[in-house]
User: Fold this.
Amino acid sequence: MSTQIVVPALGESVTEATVAKWFKAVGDAIKQDEPLVELETDKVTVEVNAPASGTLAEIVVNEGDTVEVGALLGAIAAGGAAATSTTAAAPAGTKPVEPAKPAQQPAAAASSAPGSAPAMPSAKKIAADAGVDTAQIAGTGKDGRVTKGDVLSHMEKPAAAPAPAAKAPAAPRAAGEREERVRMTRLRKRIAERLKEAQNTAAMLTTFNEVDMTAIMELRNQHKDAFEKKHGVKLGFMSFFVKASITALKEWPAVNAEIDGDDIVYKNHYDIGVAVGTPQGLVVPVLRDADEMSFATVEKTIGAFGKKARDGKLTMEEMMGGTFTISNGGVYGSLMSTPILNPPQSAILGMHKTMMRPMVMPDGSIQARPMMYLALSYDHRIIDGREAVSFLVRVKECLEDPQRILLDM
Assistant:
């Protein structure tokens, strides 16, 4: 008797996914709830666990195939009996899928041993950003070089799930010394679609200001040790920006609103999206009811989101329903940028790198101060220039005098 492996529900409005990776091969022993296959949607990556223990008897769909919710992925045979053939099963009336030929997918023996060949520049860059040692990755490029596709495949592989013994890392669609071609992930394609949608739909405009970070930096230095000792998390800048933004959103509600047809929907809740960069693309998990969170809760939640994002464990629910977004390009060294809206939201706040710059003080003296440029991109269809500028000024006031946040001033 066999147990079917099917595509689970993938979340609201998501009806299909791409088979990203099989963690097991036909004939492998399976334990119940062990990860079997990874599915990639346009929002999150989902692992499908084994519904029962036994042996992986067949694989119906191959890596790269598109599947719908409820579709059959494979089957598990009870006990230790494995299927006699490793050929993936095909729908009735069609020709069975043949195993990949060497021309399409190099055999394991064709890949170079880890550390035996240099990595290509694009692979080095993405590996350095993610803290991955390319010497531990077997290359599939020309002369055994490690390619960008090899690094992405290595990073997406869960540490707890053993790789199939008979499979080599997936090679990019084409590779060479001068260029390589890697298929866009569903997440990257969805990001591209949403960013272009925002530019095509919204009357997007950006206003800038700058904030003196002296007060926040002094406050952090004064209380960071006691804060971490009590709450078990470091006091960062993001909690100040979240709280300052909420203060300003309460005063300028249009910045927290959205357009729905001919209506403007004003939100009386403050669900703040925090943009998190991952090797696979930008994701925006949401702090629900952030106005009710303490500084410590904000920092803990953002830290947890960052780890889940890097591990590909964010759920659909954690990235839906935000009313306003904050993006911190400063962590990558950005001095100034114009962030793009996250539809259907009407505004996004961009943080940037803090740099010491000479500033003329009220008494006429010139002092070196830690300054940061702020950028607010907004939809001019719903937010007027006066509201956008006033919102950003209010954020600046709260950051330069953090006591305003605590005293609700």
